[in-house]
Design goal:
Radius of gyration: 22 Å
Distance between the termini: 32 Å
Number of helices: 7
Low-confidence stretches: 245-250
Order of helices and strands: EEEEHEHHHEEHHH
Strand content: 15-25%
Structural class: alpha+beta
Length: 250
């Protein structure tokens, strides 16, 4: 660890077991500048940028250095930017959190992968459900939606299967992507972990729905679930490109 490094420690949200990464800027003298809420139990009640000792910042957790996204500024300038912001009021876990601050110090861009994961996955869930409902409406009076699988077979599934499958799979994808990020994996690696978990969960949920049809029904359901997830990811990616967004699905 050295002056200008972005330091990260694991924390838990007050009153929960949910882990998140808290990030600050190392000043190289045993102190860290970080953005924090005034009251950890009231994350949306405001906060400020402050300077604390490394031991207080760590709060008993292991400290690691963050390098993603890569720093734009040299270490001395990163530390200077952190010091210039010292005492600044304002904190919001969604749009102005510790990761936004530390990334801004290092790159000039206020971004937070943790916020992006939550917001993107919530948006993806809404988009997937909307796609399923739209397909059902387009099917007219048909009770079930026909899903064409990669093996060339067609499986029909109803909204009572597809909507829960989309929501549960997106929740699994969010959890996997979040966990990968907390473990220090890159943005791309985290997204791949999320997509893989979502695909597997969607396949499992639909396989369970096909269980009454025996092994063949479960296989067909799993293939349909995988096809639904892949189709949803393609729709999310297309929507992002139409908006001019650089974000990938998930």
């Amino acid at each position: 660890m050295a002056r200008g490094d972005r330091l990260a420690v694991e924390r838990k949200l007050a009153g929960s077991t949910l882990k998140y990464t808290h990030v600050g800027i190392d000043l190289g003298d045993g102190t860290v500048v970080h953005a924090r809420p005034d009251d950890p139990g009231r994350m949306f009640a405001g906060g400020r940028v402050t300077r604390v000792g490394l031991r207080e910042f760590a709060a008993g957790s292991a400290v690691r250095v963050v390098s993603d996204p890569p720093a734009t500024f040299p270490p001395e300038e990163i530390a200077a930017r952190a010091m210039e912001a010292l005492g600044r009021d304002g904190y919001c876990p969604a749009v102005d959190n510790c990761e936004h601050f530390a990334t801004w110090c290092a790159t000039g861009q206020r971004t937070s992968r943790q916020s992006d994961i939550l917001l993107n996955r919530l948006g993806n869930a809404a988009a997937r459900v909307a796609a399923v409902v739209s397909a059902r409406v387009a099917a007219g009076t048909a009770e079930r939606i026909a899903v064409r699988t990669a093996l060339g077979t067609t499986v029909r599934l109803g909204l009572r299967t597809l909507v829960p499958a989309a929501l549960v799979a997106e929740a699994a994808a969010m959890a996997a992507e979040w966990t990968a990020h907390q473990a220090g994996r890159s943005e791309q690696e985290s997204r791949v972990a999320g997509e893989s978990a979502g695909l597997a969960t969607s396949a499992c949920v639909c396989a369970a729905a096909g269980a009454p049809g025996g092994p063949a029904g479960m296989v067909a359901g799993a293939l349909a679930g995988a096809a639904v997830w892949a189709g949803g990811s393609a729709a999310v990616s297309l929507a992002g490109r139409l908006r001019g967004s650089p974000q990938q699905p998930g």
